[in-house]
Every structure is written in C-alpha cells, then in structure tokens.
Amino acid sequence: MAHEHKLEIFRGLVKFKNNIQKIWGVLIFLSIVTAVEVVLGIFKPEVLTQNYFIGMKLLNWIFIILTLVKAYYIAWDFMHLRDERSSLRRAIVWTPIFLICYLVFILLFEADYIYNIFKDGFLSWNF
Amino acid sequence: MSTTVTTGTEESVWGGGNQPLNASYGKMMMWFFIVSDALTFSGFLVSYGFSRFKFIETWPIADEVFTHVPFFHGNYPMIYVAFMTFILIMSSVTMVLAVDAGHKMKKNKVIWYMFATIIGGAIFVGSQAWEWATFIKGDYGAVETKGGRILQFVDAETGERAALADFSKALPEDRIKHEKSEGVWFMDEGFKTSFSLNEVVAGFKATPNILIRTETINEEGEKTLLSRQESLAKLKDATQVVEGANLIHNEYGSRLFADFFFFITGFHGFHVFSGVLINIIIFFNIILGTYERRGHYEMVEKVGLYWHFVDLVWVFVFTFFYLV
Given an 8 Å threshold on Cβ–Cβ distance, is B301 in contact with A1? Predict the structure, then answer.
C-alpha cells in the first residue's frame, strides 16, 4: 500500500496539490481524448483517411496511439502504477507488451497472406 | 535507501523476510490475474484483427452498424458508445476516490463512492444489453447469397439505405412456419423473416429505384453500389432473407463480425457483470465495518484494480470495434 502519491503528470508539466485533484485532472484529460476520438470518428477528415503510413490510414494510427495514451493514464493513475516500485511496474507492463506485439505481428501477417490467397489463388468465395 | 529493510544485516533484498516489490500477496496476485486476463483479451482482439485482415475488402463499416441511441430516432453513429465509454471511465474515477478515502479510513465516503461505482457499472451493463438487442433485431434487412455474402438495398434517389419493408411486395403465398409438433423429428425452423425471398425479389423487380449494395469496399472507403442491371443479375444469387444478426447470419455483412462482436463484447460484459457483483460484496463488507476492524481498506484497492482493468479493456474494444 503506497500511501505517498506522485502528483505530477505529463512528465512534471502539471502538478496537482493532492491525489483527489489528480484523479479529476486525469478524468478531464481522458474525456478530452475520448471526445477527440469520437469527433474524428464521426467526421473522418479526408486528409487522414486518404493518406497512409506503413499500410494503415493516418486516422487509424491516431486512434491506436490515442488508445495507448488512454491506457497509459488508466494504468498509471487509476491503477496507481505510478506509485508502485519500478520492478513491479516493469514486470506487469513489459511482459504483456512483448507477448502482444509478437501475437499481433504473426497473426496479422498470416491474415494478410490468406487475404492474398483468396484474392489471387484459384479460389472462389465471393459469390 | 529501501524503507522495507527490517534487519540491520547485509542480507540481500530477495533473501526473504521482506517485500522486494512493496506489494502485499493479495495485490500481487490480483496483478498476475490481470496480466493473464489481459493476454486472453488481446488474444480475442488479435483474432478479430486476423479475420478482419483476411476479409479486409469486405468487412462491415462499424459506423453503419451501430447508429442508434435509445429514445431517439435517426442516425447517430458512435454517440451511444461514447456515452458508455464515459460512464465506465466515470465509474473508474469514483472507484479511485473510494480507494483514496479508504487510505484515509473514511468509512462513509468509501460507502458512497462504492455505491456510485456500482451504479455506473450497472448502467454500462444495461447499455450493452441494449446494444446487443438492437444489433440482434437488425435495421434494414438484407438477402444472403449462396456464398454467404450479404446484399443490402439502397434507394437510388436519396442514396439512403432501403428497408425490406419499403419495397417488398406481399405475395398471395402461404408460408407456414414449421413447428416442432408438425415434424417427423423434433425440429422447428426458429425465426421466420417478415418477408420471403420471393416477396423481396418481386418487390425489387417492381421498384425501379432500388439498387443493391455489395459488401465490397471501394477506393473511397464506401460499400460498392451496383447499377440497376448489375443489381438484377446479382439478385439471382440470393438464397435467403436475413433480418438482424446472430451467430450464423448477419445482415450487416460478414458473419464473423457478428461472431466476434458477440464474443468479445460478451466476454467483456461478463467481466463488468462479475465486477459489479464483487463490488456489491465489498460494498456490504464496508457497511458491516469489516475493513474498519481489519485496520485497512486494501480489499477496496484490490477490487479497484480489477475494475480499472475492465475499463482498460473497454478502451481497446472501443477502438478496435467502433473506431478503426
């Protein structure tokens, strides 16, 4: 039970007076991020849907990055990983990150391969 | 300097008798559970990605699937899920406030914050049930081809989707639902669509301003619209009428989309449901003063971790099901 709280977020840019203020601050930040996602999802600006970066639309990159940002603040401030020992934090965070990256990599590549088989192979499925 | 070293000897940190990670047994086990559960969820989400990449050109567009808001008519993509996300984040906040009040041993505050958390969770589960019901019930209806592809209908003048009821023609045919009592074997036919395939086809031929929309996504990121000639030719492939979605048929497009939707949001919803139950148990324990007597509110912190994890998972489900 860590009773001392680290009250700085954004690498010390914002410092709160106490833990309760920090919680509300993080809530406001998470709400803003969600609102940005929803607005982008409804309007879908052409600039972001027409341009690609490493095979994915810029818009989707923005969504995924904003999701990871939200996940960071939920884990760090709501699940108070910020106040835990760094050894515990690393064990909890890096293990799944490594495994998930690996899984995403192999499965999405395999799926893309199957997509090409369906597209170019002598196989009819769209009838 | 470490604050947990209790002996003056030169013993190593991992030699026993202290807590190198400065976390109690229960809290650490909760974290281990969360890590393994996170891997389960990522397995599901990645397999969703697998199926999606496999059918990248024909996958349904989420904005066209989830467009309803309770008590409002019209087309409001995303609004209701955004509301659900906000409710869940909000109940996460009241949970952190409960943990914080627990550290300060303020029993009444913990009770009220836990109560708010439970209400938030209940609203979320209810919303998800509504979301499921809307998805199962369906919107416009469609026909399915022999290959399991979905053909949807569009009004050529307005460019909007046309419901089966808008153009289907009531034919003087007798369509009797097959029931268990009538059969040789104990089988019934289950759900009966409101129009038969013949009625839809006849209505389509009689209404010249209806076109067919296929699953294929074109370069503009929209579903391909066929011309009237192509539509008439394509309609010959149709084998049955589909209304709504279940595990076998899905009027919105690829049936895998419905399967993963039911499975992943269902698994998450079940987590929320069990979270609410655990929260209720803890809530009564707080009222009974169990943690007051124990001298600390660590139990609230532990369920809190689980509750935030549920929120964390939802953030990812939200992105990959509704946004991307």
Answer: yes
